Each structure stands twice: as structure tokens, then as C-alpha cells.
Amino acid sequence: MKRRDFLGGALLGGVALVATTPLLGQDSTQATPGAGPATGNTSNLFDMNQTAAKTVRRPPKRDAVASMSPEQRDALEHDIRCQCGCTLDVYTCRTTDFSCQVSPAMHRDVMSLVEGGYPAREILDAFVDTYGERALMAPRKQGFNLAGYLAPFAVLALGAAGLVFVLRGMQRRSVAVKAATDAPVAPLATDDEMARLDAAIKRDV
Amino acid sequence: MILVGELALWVALLMAAWSAVASFSGGALGRDDLVTSGRRGLYATWAMVTLASIGLWTALLTHDFSLKYVASNTAANMPKVYVFAAFWGGQAGSMLFWSLILASYSAIAIWSVREKSRDLAPWAAGTLAAILLFFIATTCFKANPYDRLSFIPVDGRGMNPQLQNPGMAIHPPNLYLGYVATAIPFAFAIAALVTRKLDAEWLSIVRRWSLVSWFFLTIGITLGMWWAYVELGWSGYWAWDPVENASLLPWLTGTAFLHSIMIQEKRGMLRKWNVVLVVTTFLLAIFGTFLTRSGIIESVHSFAQSPVGVWFGAFFFTILAATIYFVATRLRDLEAKAELESMVSREAAFLYNNLVLVGIAFSVLWGTLFPVLSEWVRGSKITVGPPFFNTVNVPLGLLLLALTGIGPLIAWRKASTANLKRQFVVPVIVGLGTGALLLAMGMRNFHALVAYTLAGFVSGTIGQEFYKGIGARRVIHGEGVLPAAFRLVARNRRRYGGYIVHAGIVILFSAFAGLAFKKDYDLQLKAGETKELVDPLGHHWKFISQGVSTSETLNRFVTAVGLEVTRDGVPQGIVTSEKRQHFDSNKQPQFEPSTEVGIRTSAALDLYVVLAGVRNETAELRISFNPLVVWVWIGGLVMAIGGLIVMWPQTERRRAPSGYVATLAPATREPAVVR
């Protein structure tokens, strides 16, 4: 690559960087939810937002019975994110930190929906309706989110294809060179040299 | 001393700037006087940064609350060890800590090559001084630990209680030692690219420092997992938090480099790829810092809304552009000296290993950034948590584990069918035997079964390599098993140290797979009440509550619950979990209450007791049975020991093979010779 080509590319990159800088600035102001008046000089670890809980209730279904066992409900709570800012799921947060008022509130909502006869999928839908998709510990495998799940494998597959392509090329060149250099050559080493080599190898093992 | 430290920080800024200018000018103009001055400027920078650090430590330990940093991160009643550790507990202090480590590393690296690498040293010194300049400038202008308050508070805010843990005191320094060490290989890569001297000299320096980085990152990551496990109380050690991911990224690419460098050393191949990996590792260390200090990513660890993020972003793109320029304009100098002869060879296996390691690094980076991308594209926030990362990374991790066992079994250059059969038969039998045994014992979890089968396979590979090596020594030298094993490792540190690292990986993956069988229980227990639970191995545990107690100690109120524990009727002692409310010198509560977990460790599983809270004299508890957790720490330790063996310097006498050099014939150049 010539210096001029590089500088041209760098100029384009610079323009792109300038274009994305406002995005960085914008995002940096909406950092950790619940982060209080933290300054850059404070210790890390988050500040809890105790007011983040919203009500997620639905009327019970007709002749409702509990839609799942307590174990299944706990497993479901592993898929719902506590909104206090801890990044834990509801089950883990409520059983770890009694001072959090958000995860117990979300747990009560889950219990209410379970007792109202709602299956897991509908309970998750209810939380997504209220909090948005960030109520889930992982994005659903649909729409744009599929790019998130598939990109690593696609990149790996592309990398593998590229690697095989490069290796095949190298292998072909190697065979061609070997054929060209396969002419008879003088003995590679004398018997004395081979004996000394054997001794050196034994010493190094 | 505090004033001296503050002044020293500004002098360090000037020294670093001078060192960069003098070193680059000296290198470009071929003037030894400038080169020497630049080098001495680097030493002076180190001296000044050290003084600045001593000044800050003095301010912390003497509780000089006129400094905003001291008042924000410490309190008068904090234990001294955590006051000392507060140096790296906050944003500004950690920036100075980076500078201290970088200045120390730079001085050592440049001093050690000042005579040997006269061509590379000026450019490496200049690059390191420029990086140092960035860190010191960011510290001075955007996160200065010497910033003063307009008033002097009676006491400081204190440190988050969860940071007041021995793990927190030692794991960040190890991570920093690992992150910062990536700058040395980067600097020498830039020096080699600038001077077009991309031979064995830069490779040897880069390999040594890459090992240093890998070693400290391994220890730092393991200690970080341990801290999270014993301190945070959520019963796990890895949450795929962006800060955790940021530490994993350079470790992954650094590991890839330490494999692929062997191919360049032995065959002169992968020269471009190795430069890319060295540079990527450093860039990822910087990018991780940018991520966690810019506030762009949500993390429990993040230094929220920090002003240094934009500086790190600009720095990242600057070094990215500079590196792309140098690599793009030196592609011819990076041509391979040999060609691959077979797709079934050790070289090819290392490349497959590189592909998977870099693939995992990509998937971790992608998952970390996906919330930002999703918000940018769709305008809605999402969470990318453990379920996402486990879905994507478990298959890739298992593939990596398989390659860990396959690579050492394949011959260099070209493996014959007979060779493959001979090498693979024992490891495959061990692997399949392990899987069949576990299946027969009732294990039905698919991922765990695959993990243990592969762990058996890799163990078979490692065992076979040691068996053959020890056997050869016993036949040739007539040694006993233990002396033969010791000398085998001592004389082939790189190879057998590497196998010990692989053994650590096997232990780690086995421990990770154990979590598939984790069991959690919620309990409410009043004093004297009893509860019986069954662990994943079928043992019956009985818990008798000793009641809730309260006390005051050091800088905290403590609420504790003691449980008398028996397993299958055998007493296991008392397990205690605490809730701590820290207070300041005026006994005013500070921070949210924190949890002290009660842990009873055995080789098979951990009993993990968390006091979530107390309501009406009733303790609300979570009791978890976490299988094989202790093996995570042991695996990390084994990996670190293996790394230490690999990087332990070998004496010249042993390294030089007595005047004989068996040269593998590069396929493109000349036939094999023995000279």
C-alpha cells in the first residue's frame, strides 16, 4: 500500500470517527441506570436504583391454577433481569441482597402471573411490555437479535473458509517448490556428524 | 511529600514527552546522543511517576482529605490494607497506577535491550514514551488524583464494602500488570515494522513480554473470579460482565499469539498474522479500558460517566490508524519464509486453534457491544447476559478444548496416517471411556458429557506425552520416574510447561461443566429450626439454625446467622453468613449493606450460604450446592504454574545445542541440512 492510499483511507476513517463521536457522548450520559451523582473519581460498583420497579400485573385467567412449580418459577426468574442496576437476574438478586426492593417487587409480579395461570412465554411478554426488551437476561432469538446470535458462528465459518483457502494455496506452492528442488543432492551429513547429532539429541531429551 | 508527588506528576509529563521526541528523532536521524537522551528520559519518567505514586500513597495513608480522591475513596476508620489498595480503587488512582506499571515495565524493557537491539530500542522507547505520555496526560488533565476540594471534610466517603476484600486488594494489580505488559510487545512490533527488522530479535523480546502479560492476566482473571465468588454473594464466579469480558479479550488473543509464534520460530511462517495478534492484543487492552471508563457499556464495575472515555477512544483510533499504516506499507517484509506442506500438521492445528481463540474473542466482543449496536440500529435497549454468552461460547469453548488435545498429537510439517493412528489411539480411548463411564453413572446433561469426554481426551494426550518423554529419559539416562519427570520438564520448559497449562485448562473446563449440576434452595429459618436438603451428588444435608446475632466490629455493624450443618449424619461444623452495614467515623451508615458468604469447600462441591436478610427474627437464606468450584482456583493455579515454567529463563548452555543446529528445511528455500 502506498502512503497516499493510506492517508486517503485515514481521512475517511477520521470523518467516520467525527461522525460517531456524538454517539459516544450521548451514550456516556446515560451510563449505569441508577448511578447517582457518581463522579469519575468514585470507587466502582454500581449505585442501586430502588425506584426502578413498575407494576406488571394481568387479570387471572378463567379457572386459573398455578402454571408452574416453584422450581420452574425460579428457573423463569433466571431469565428476567432485575432493574435495580445490579445486572443480576431476579432470582439471584432477591436471594442475595435483601436491601434491593426491586427484585422482590418483580418476584411478586412473577408469582401473581404464575398464580393467574400465565405460561412462561406470556409472563416474559408481560415484562417486556412493561420494561422493554431489557427486562430479559438475553435478547430473544428473533429479528435483528438473530444477528447477535449468528454473527460469531458466521465469522468463524468465514474465517475457517478463508483459512482453508489460504492453507490450500500454501500447500500447492509447497508441492511446486518441492518438485523443483527434488534434484539429487549430495549426502546431507557425514556418519560422524550424524553420530554427534544423535549424542546431542540424547543429551537434550 | 504530597506536594512533591503532585509536582513529580507534571515533571513526568514533560519527561515522557521529551523521551518520545528524542527517541523517535534519534531513531530517524541515527543520532546516538538523542537515542541515549530519550532512553534516559524514560528512566526519569519512571522516577517521577514513582515519586507521584509515593505522594498519593502518603496522602492516602495520612488521610489527607483535602484531596478529592482520598476523600472519595477512603475513610479514617478503614483498615490500612484497604487504604493502601484505594490507590487503584478509583478512577484517578488507577490511571496513575497504570502509568506506574507502564513506566516500570518500559524502563526494564528498554534497559534490557539497550545494547542488544540498537536498531529497535529507539523506536520501542519512543512508542512506550508516547503511550506513557497519553496515560500521564489523561491523569493530569482528566483524572488527577491530586485535585483538591474547596473544603477539608472531617472524614472521607470510604470504599465500597465489597471492595474491602483481600481479593480486591490483589486482583486488580495483577490484571493491570497483565494489561500493561501488552504495551511492550506492541512497542517492539511497531519498532520492528518501522525499521523493517522483522527477524528473530524482535520475536524473542515480544514472546517474553507476551508471556509476562499472559501470566499476570491468568492470575488476575482467576483472582477476580474468586473475589466475585466469595464477596458478591450471587453464587457464581463469572457473569459475562463487560469488565470481565474486557480482561478475557487480550488473554484470548495473547494465547493465540503464544501458539502461533511457535510456527514463526520454527518455520518462518505467519509473520503477518503474528504482528496482527500482537497489535490486536494491545488494542483490546486499550479498548477494554475505553469500554469500562467511557460509560458506553453498562457494567456493575464501570467508572460511571467518566471523562476519560473520549480520550481513550481517540487514543484507540490513533494507534489503530498508525498500526494499519505500518502493517499495510510493510507487507512485503512480512512475507512467509516457508509454506505449509499439509493441512494435517502441527502448524495447521495451531492455525485452527488460533481461529477458534480469535473466534471466541470476537464473540465475546460482539456480545459486549451488541447492546450498543442494537440501541443504535433499533433504538431500544437490550440486555446481553449470561444466557446469550453461554449459548454462543459453550460450543466454541468445547471446540477449543478438543483442539487443545489434538494439536500436540500431530507431527510438524506433515502427519502420516500411521503417525496419526499411533498418536490418537490412547487419548481417544481415554476420552470415550470417560464419556461412557459418566453416561453409565447416569449423567444426562449433553454439554457436560461432551466436556468431560473431551477433558478425558486431552488428559490422555497430556498423559501420553509425559509418559513417552519420561520413558525416553529412563531408557537413555536410566533415571527413576520422578527425577526423569523433573528433568524432562526442566530441560524442555516450553513444551512441557505448555502441557501443564493445558492440564490447567482441562481442570478449568471440568469445573465449569460442574456448574450444570448446581442446586439452589431458598429457606426461612428461625432459631432452632431445622431443614434437610439433598445435594446434586445425592448426599443429605441437615441445617439447624443457631439464630441471628448482631455485633459491631471495626467499621461495620454485623448481622450474622450460624447454621449447624451435618452431611449424611456426619457433623460438618457451623457455617456462618453475615450482612454488614459499614459506617463512617460518626457511626453514620455508608453504602448499601453487603453480604459475607458462608462457604464450606470440598473437592466435590461447595456449600454456599447467603444471608439475604432478616425479617421478624427469621433468617432468609439461599443455600447453594456448587459442584467442583474449588477446581476453578486449582485450574487457574496450575495454568499460572505452567506459564511460569514456560517463561522461566533457560540458561544459554542448555539453550545452545552444542554447536549442532538441526534446521527444518523451509519448503521454498533449500533441502534439509545439518551443519
Main sheet summary of chain B: 5 strands, antiparallel
Query: How many β-strands of chain B, per DSSP?
Result: 11
Q: Oligomeric form of this entry?
A: heterodimer
Estimate the helix proportion of chain B, in percent: 55-70%
Structural class of chain B: alpha+beta
| Gyration radius of chain B, in Å | 27 Å
> Which pair of chains forms the biggest interface, and how many residues does each contribute?
A-B, 89 and 116 residues
CA(first)-CA(last) distance of chain B: 62 Å
Tell me the overall shape of chain A: elongated
Kindly report how far apart the N and C termini of chain A lie. Answer: 47 Å
Considering DSSP H and I runs of 4 or more, what fraction of the residues of chain A is helical?
Answer: 55-70%
Average pLDDT taken over every residue of chain B: 88
Number of E strands of chain A: 0
Concise account of the structure shown:
The complex is a heterodimer of chains A (205) and B (675). By secondary structure, chain A is an all-alpha fold.
Please give a structural write-up:
The complex is a heterodimer of chains A (205) and B (675). Chain A has 205 residues and is an all-alpha fold. In chain A, helix 3 (90-96) packs across helix 4. Mean pLDDT of chain A is 76; it is low at 17-45. Chain A is elongated. In chain A, 57% of the residues lie in helices and 0% in strands. By secondary structure, chain B is of the alpha+beta class. Chain B is built from 20 helices and 11 strands. Chain B has helices at 2-29, 32-61, 68-73, 80-85, 91-113, 120-141, 166-181, 183-195, 200-232, 242-267, 271-294, 308-328, 346-378, 386-406, 417-440, 446-477, 481-491, 493-514, 630-647, 652-655, and strands spanning 519-525, 530-534, 540-553, 556-567, 570-582, 594-596, 598-601, 605-615, 618-627, 662-663, 673-674. In chain B, the strands form 3 sheets. Chain B has a 5-stranded antiparallel beta sheet with strand order 2-3-4-5-6. Chain B has a 4-stranded antiparallel beta sheet with strand order 1-9-8-7, with no helix packed on it. Chain B is globular. The N and C termini of chain B lie far apart (62 Å). The chains are: A mainly alpha (205), B alpha+beta (675).
